[in-house]
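Dear Dr. H.,

I hope your travels went smoothly. While you were away I took the liberty of generating a structure for the chain from your last submission, since the lab meeting agenda had it listed for discussion. I wanted you to have the full record in hand beforehand rather than looking at slides cold. The sequence, exactly as received, is reproduced here:
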Amino acid sequence: MQRFDFAFDKWFMPGLVLLGVTPMTAYADLSEAGLSVRFGFWKLETELSNITCFKVTEDYTWYKAIGARGSFVDRGLTFGTNAERGVCVKFAKPIPALVPGDIMPHPGLTMTLADIDGFVASLEALGVSAPA
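The corresponding predicted structure, in token form, is as follows:
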């Protein structure tokens, strides 16, 4: 198992702390078994076989990228700690995480990790590919 920490922008730390999101409570664990993400009070877990692809994304609008948020447009989930760069993983079967139960399952998760290149390399080593 490999642990990947989130990359925190110091300007957003006070608001994130109010959500329970700190460097101690925000990380992604990746292994042959799957992906487990903790982001303060929120958790997401899925098997590796449920991850279909990934894409590195950059330059977010801060108010759309910081914190835990779901999109009503595509139901995607964001766990964000900065507005610079992140990685979006897509799921074959949507996963609930933001709200309890299966009310709003998410087909993808964007995370602003500190070592995005390392996370991507680990995904590729485990057989997950970037979209064509």
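Two observations you may find useful: The radius of gyration is 13 Å. The mean pLDDT is 94.

With kind regards,
E. W.
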